Amino acid sequence: MEFKVLSTCGEARYGKLKGTHGETETPCFMPVGTLGAVKGVTWKNVKEMGYSLVLSNVYHLYLRPGLEVIEEAGGIHSFTGWKDLILTDSGGFQVFSLGSLMKLTEEGVEFCSHLDGSKHFFTPEFVIEFEERIGVDIGMVLDECTPYPATYDYAKHSMERTLRWAKRSIEARTTDRTALFGIVQGGVYEDLRLKCVEEITRLPFEGFAIGGLSVGEPKEEMYRITRLVAPNLPSDKPRYLMGVGTPEDILEAVEAGVDMFDCVMPTRNARNGTLFTSYGKVNIKAAKYKKDFTPLDPNCDCYTCRNFTKAYLRHLYVSREVNSVILNTIHNLHFYAKLMEGIREAIKEGRFAQFKEEFLRKFRGEGS
Amino acid sequence: MEFKVLSTCGEARYGKLKGTHGETETPCFMPVGTLGAVKGVTWKNVKEMGYSLVLSNVYHLYLRPGLEVIEEAGGIHSFTGWKDLILTDSGGFQVFSLGSLMKLTEEGVEFCSHLDGSKHFFTPEFVIEFEERIGVDIGMVLDECTPYPATYDYAKHSMERTLRWAKRSIEARTTDRTALFGIVQGGVYEDLRLKCVEEITRLPFEGFAIGGLSVGEPKEEMYRITRLVAPNLPSDKPRYLMGVGTPEDILEAVEAGVDMFDCVMPTRNARNGTLFTSYGKVNIKAAKYKKDFTPLDPNCDCYTCRNFTKAYLRHLYVSREVNSVILNTIHNLHFYAKLMEGIREAIKEGRFAQFKEEFLRKFRGEGS
Question: Which keywords does this chain's UniProt record carry (chains A, B) (predicted)?
Fold first, then answer.
């Protein structure tokens, strides 16, 4: 993997990331394709919107369709038909979300499948092996995702285990065709976060992620930790804020020097009828749109906005038509793609702060 | 509306149908867009497959989004964003499917909404008014859809009412921008069918449909009645076999002189994981496809077959991903489009019987 920062604007960075299967400009947003598909849109749609890096998930792919199927298909790219970059989250977040269905030891984590209750065991080494064998461009290490709230002691031990697992992950690597990112934990405790940064950046990872945020903490906490951690990560490596977020969150984090994002928000919200527009969020099922024959966002040139009205989108949503999912997802992912494009242009042109302010003023102004 | 038969091959006809919003070659298959959307595909997909005529449904559109919304949008084309031909079924079939929630009188039919139980009343005149006001290209009259089985007397009275309603429908017309098709009923009784043909073809309809088939009767009954009725309908007007059907059914009916078809089969089957291929039907959830890394149909050039394997389609289906619906529907509708294209070419080239035989030999040969 290669990564180059090409321009900066304050802490905000514009760059290019090149992996085994393609390249992307940064800051970038990764559409979430948990099971090897971005729900509601075809790869053709995803690519046409300008995305060349998507996220998938080891935990989910391990359960379905399983390592054997993906490997025999020739890897995750052959299996899914997505020809560009793929990053996989380790599944740590999913496993730790299982609560009582999960048992943590120093060796790894035992968990029961959310599908059939069957028992499985993930070690840091297994996650690396899985990611390398399915041939992702970027793999994330298995970490212990500290929940919120957590006591100082809990967060400390959890961060220390994450560090020990990070070392084991590095030792388990067998190829550089799959780049590997380390993850910074430490909860909302600044000294723990800085300690983790100090230790983990000694390891030869190709990039670093900020984990354990967007797990229920107040926004200010997320911003505070991001602003603390991001600038302390190596400037020549990509920085990835996991599971984030809203357009506001992304703008805040870019300002702190983050390069990569992923979030289910544009796709999940699309399915729930919540649409992002330049003038704020729109709840398309609202009765006021029943006879609103204007486009969702007149400033948007996506397929949905060019061809359909709010009234039609509302009709599809309230009628529970699958086409509601399709058209809403096309729009929301297009919106995120354009947001990231705007961010990159603004950084290149040295006007990121102004871009952020203008975007937010409009976005917060007329929401519904 | 204009219709011209341009070639024949036995009873089979190749023709062109021109309506207010476009034209289509016949024999044609109409994808079903009950609520103003073909479930699982965008209009762009539908158009790219070669379809220029889709079917929608008065009963469903009347309930959601309702006449007022569609009319204020400027009609069904403006509302849905589909720019080509639209035919609406009257909803008679849906209403009669409601059973005890429906009360039939000479004046019309009272029914309770399947959505909220609210009471409504359809008359033949109201259906025409609805179709004209939403601006469909072809409207179907309200008929009494005779169920199967039905006694001779029931079928006779039902057919006679359909004729009386057909006359009222003709009298209710106010524009020729919406063409109107009459419907032949009469159950499986040949004399009733012929009587209905004789009477209804005296009325100035732009086309005629064969109704009351594909309602549970044996295939041979459907074919027998189709072969009896179709050739007795006026040769200069389009003939439409409602709610049909499988590829076999369509080939049989084209051979009998039918020009138009509609059926939920390609779209509904897609959602259920049943896919049409040149070598028969494929149940994509079958375990044997788990590691089948070949395309669904190597003879198919649809987006799904060009880019994905059976193993991936199976994975999406068993994981209940919405993308399963999308990719399966793209394939099945593409398959039907290609079938109709093949049929039209064969008729033009005077080799329909041969086409039918070859298609069926292959289709029946290796199904799963």
Answer: Glycosyltransferase, Metal-binding, Queuosine biosynthesis, Transferase, tRNA processing, Zinc
- Cβ distance of A291 and B319 shorter than 8 Å: no
CB nearest A303 (choices: B35, B42, B303): B42
CATH number among 1.10.10.10, 3.20.20.105, 3.30.420.10, 3.40.50.20, domain B2-262:
3.20.20.105
Contact A312 B80 (CB under 8 A): yes
Residue of B nearest to A79 (CA): B312
Task: Show pLDDT as tens, one digit a residue, over chain B (368 residues).
Answer: 999 999 999 999 999 999 999 999 999 999 999 999 999 999 999 999 999 999 999 999 999 999 999 999 999 999 999 999 999 999 888 888 888 889 999 999 999 999 999 999 999 999 999 999 999 999 999 999 999 999 999 999 999 999 999 999 999 999 999 999 999 999 999 999 999 999 999 999 999 999 999 999 999 999 999 999 999 999 999 999 999 999 999 999 999 999 999 999 999 999 999 999 999 999 999 999 999 999 999 999 999 999 999 999 999 999 999 999 999 999 999 999 999 999 999 999 999 999 999 999 999 985 44
Query: Chain B: nearest CA to A17, how far in angstroms?
Result: 26
- Can you give chain B as a three-state secondary structure string? CEEEEEEEECCEEEEEEEECCEEEEECEEECECCCCCCCCCCHHHHHHCCCCEEEEEHHHHHHCCCHHHHHHHCCHHHHHCCCCEEEEECCHHHHHHCHHHEEECCCCEEEECCCCCCEEEECHHHHHHHHHHHCCCEEECCCCCCCCCCCHHHHHHHHHHHHHHHHHHHHHCCCCCCEEEEEECCCCCHHHHHHHHHHHCCCCCCEEEECCCCCCCCHHHHHHHHHHHHHHCCCCCCEEECCCCCHHHHHHHHHCCCCEEECCHHHHHHHHCEEEECCEEEECCCHHHCCCCCCCCCCCCCHHHHHCCHHHHHHHHHCCCHHHHHHHHHHHHHHHHHHHHHHHHHHHCCCHHHHHHHHHHHHHHCCC
Q: Does A113 touch chain B (CB under 8 A)?
A: no
Task: Return the domain boundaries, chain A.
Answer: 2-262, 270-360
Q: Which of B37, B79, B323 has its CB closest to that of A321?
A: B37
